[in-house]
Each structure stands twice: as structure tokens, then as C-alpha cells.
Amino acid sequence: MASAVGEGRKLAQAESRVISHPMAPRKRNRQLRPPRPVKRLPQALIIGVRKCGTRALLEMLYLHPMVQKASGEVHFFDRDENYALGLDWYRSKMPLSFKGQITIEKSPSYFVTPEVPERVRAMNSSVRLLLIVREPVTRAISDYTQLRSRATPSAPAHPAPPAGEAARPFEHLAITADGSINVAYRPIAISLYHSYLHRWLEVFPREQLLVVNGDRLIEDPVPQLRRIETFLGIEHKIGRRNFYFNETKGFYCLRNDTTDKCLRETKGRKHPRVDPAVVTKLRRFFVQHNQRFYELVGEDLGWPED
Ligand code: A3P
């Protein structure tokens, strides 16, 4: 933003010089008016996957001066009641941005909601899509951890999992009584990435979607962000100086010229211990599904097979 603001300032000075000249034609005055920020529809979306680092990714990209972000999850494309309010309503939820800046919104449920790809295309068929994924079993456990925490009285505002589920161990929810994998259990179902991705690829060309490795983003954010900067067509501006490792949190925190910031305590929760035999069983189950995902994206993410 700094450069756009700086550019705006230069233009503002130029304009005041022109205005002070009595012969200055009116049209030129208008042309030299300083750029004003306006609300724009997003040119890029973080479509999911939930619990894979969607918030971290958005906050990290926001370190870039040419990126503006919608502050909350807008849920425009996945909730019929919001979608019915139309694009002007959606635009009103966007941040102010200067010309040339990229507006990004993230709502992780976009990825899994069937109507969303077509609706996104109807808004902008050349929108850039960012899909962040993690090793599917870790993601499922993270999802379980979140659902369980939401069922506690300290977080009453959030939707709670179905009655009784929260108190049950992950192992009992992920594996049925007959020993098969419970694909109806939401944290497992959402980790079947290929079953949602194919719909997006029926609507958007592959080049318009970037798959971000969420496990690598945790370990070393800068190389992932470089790839994303290239994908978004913006200069490489986010570097090592923008991060420091916080030993207490166990994650990288973010830094720019004015602030240091770690993500909230709901990001980077401690996961419960899960029986290693169950982890192995789940990983084996996911092998063929991961393979289908790799084929769709044309890339092997190397997730463990047991
Ligand atoms: P856990 O809380 O299970 O560790 P989302 O924002 O999509 O809900 O994803 C949350 C996940 O972001 C966290 O899951 C955490 O692992 C991951 N994450 C990635 N980078 C992070 C960071 N720098 N700080 C905190 N969490 C981060």
C-alpha cells in the first residue's frame, strides 16, 4: 500500500500545482486527481481447506503492500442468504484498495460447497484461487480439536458439534464399531480433497488454482509465499525479515514495519494424542484418495502412507 499511497501523494502535489494555474484546463485537473481507494470485488480467493492454515496464509499475504484483505470470512458464495444479497453487498464487505492492489477474501467452506465454483465464475472467470492443504489425517485431527473446543462453555458463540460427539475420542468418531473408516464423519470427509476439487477443475482451468502446502507454510513460510507472489503477479516483497519463530507458540509470528503479531490462540492448538494404530489405519485409507488428488493437481505432495 505504501507505494500506492506514495504515488497518490505525488499526484496530489501535481494536481495542486495544476489547479493553481489559472489556464489549466478542467479535464486535466480531473485526470490528475489523486487516486482514491475504493472497495473492489476480490481478484483472489482463499477457498479452503479449513484447518490447513487459511488464516495464517491470509495474514501472511497481507504483509505485502499490494494486498488488501477482507477482515472476516464473508461467506458470500456458500450461504444462499448472503448470495441473494448480490455483488454490491459482497463488494461492501471488501476493504478499500488502490488501483493495482489485490483484494483477497477467504472463506474455507467455499471449497466444499457444491454451488460455489459456478458462482465464483459468474463473478469473475479469471479470479485466482488459492487452495491450502495439509496432510489429511493431521487436518482431520485439527478439525476434531476445533470442534471439541467449540463444545466447551468458553466458546459458546461458535456452532457446536452434534450432541455427544464432542466428548468422544477422535478414534471412536473416525473409526466405526466394525473397524471401517467413518467417511460420514465430517473431519474425515473434508480431508477427501479430490472429491471436492474435481468440481472446481470442471469450472476453472488448472492454471488458475494454486495448491499451497500448509505443512510447509508452517515450517518455512517464505518459499511458499514467493510462489504465491509469482502466481498473483506481484513483486517478491515478503521475506525472512517478516517472520520470527515464537518458541512458546511453536509457530512463526508475523512482523512488519510497525507491528509484531502472532495468530490467535485458536490457531496452533495442541492436538490430543491419537492412538498411533488409528493414525496408521487412516493414513493407509487416505493413500488412494491422496493419489487421486495428486493426479488432479499434477503434483505429488508426498504425504505419509502409514
Ligand atoms: P492447528 O490449530 O490444528 O495447529 P485455519 O486458519 O485454516 O483454521 O488453520 C489453522 C491452522 O493453521 C492451525 O491448525 C495451524 O497449524 C496452522 N498455522 C499455519 N501457520 C500458522 C502460524 N504461523 N501460526 C499459527 N497457526 C498456523
TrEMBL record:
Domain of life of the source: Eukaryota
Keywords attached to this entry: Glycoprotein, Transferase
Membrane-spanning ranges: none
UniProt keyword Lipid metabolism present: no
Stretches the record annotates as Disordered: 1-35
Coiled coil: none
Compositionally skewed regions (Basic residues) per UniProt: 24-35
Sulfotransferase domain mapped to chain residues: 42-289
Protein name per Swiss-Prot or TrEMBL: Sulfotransferase domain-containing protein
